[in-house]
Amino acid sequence: MKRLSLFFIAVLTASVLEAATEDVWSTATSLGPNDYYVILKIPVIADEEKIWKTLTDYNHLANFIPYIQQSDVINRKNNWVRLHQAGRIHYWFHTANLEAVFKVIESPGKGISFTCISGNFETLKGSWHIETITPEKSQLICRFEVIPKPSFPSWAVLHVATHQVAEMVEALKHEIERQ
């Protein structure tokens, strides 16, 4: 019984965790204490233009992405966007309210980069990319590094990164394909 318990604990606190929800492939890797690198990939039946339109409709993301309660453009200048987002995540018996202001740089045809400039994160930076598979099918890829503030247990960060964030990406896919 003791060996089984130790195995269970080791699985919960693994430094690399992979998961898949419906169509989302995700992996989270620990880069150090409370520092994680996450990759999510999902196929989308849509062209790049349709994906881009939904992905950059920042003021409406909270309408269809779970855990995001607010998403508002603070200001926009050319390809630079300052974005405020707030939400709530749940893990086991805990709830965390998250809030962040992002500097977003849009590069049509290349992707979107984002960096948290204030909020509940020491670091939250990454990118979105769209890979065209066929004229009607693409793959949406999100990569980011996150260091939460305050520190969360590693199992909680890994779970949120590979499950709840994957649910968010899945909801984005469904909205893109619905349009």
Please give a structural write-up:
The chain has a single domain (about 1-179), classed as START domain (Alpha-D-Glucose-1,6-Bisphosphate, Chain A, domain 4, 2-Layer Sandwich), CATH 3.30.530.20. A nine-stranded antiparallel sheet has the order 1-2-3-9-8-7-6-5-4, covered by helices on one side. The protein has helices at about 1-10, 50-55, 155-179; strands at about 15-20, 25-30, 35-45, 70-75, 80-90, 95-105, 110-120, 120-135, 135-150. The chain is an alpha+beta fold and about 180 residues long. The longest helix is centred in the last third of the chain and has 25 residues, at about 155-179. The termini are far apart. About 25% of the residues are buried.
Give the name of the CATH architecture. 2-Layer Sandwich
pLDDT below 50 for ≥5 consecutive residues: which ranges? Answer: 1-20
Strand count: 9
Number of H- or I-type helical stretches: 3
- SSE order, one letter for each helix or strand: HEEEHEEEEEEH
Can you identify the CATH superfamily?
A: START domain
Rg on CA atoms, Å: 17 Å
| CATH top level label | Alpha Beta
Give the tally of structural domains: 1
Give the overall shape, derived from the CA principal axes.
Answer: globular
Distance between the termini: 52 Å
Range of strand content = over 45%
Please bin the fraction of helical residues: 10-25%
Structural class from helices and strands?
A: alpha+beta
Mean pLDDT: 86
Largest sheet: 9 strands, antiparallel
Quaternary status of these chains? Answer: single chain
Largest sheet, spatial ordering of strands = 1-2-3-9-8-7-6-5-4
Q: Predict the CATH topology.
A: Alpha-D-Glucose-1,6-Bisphosphate, Chain A, domain 4
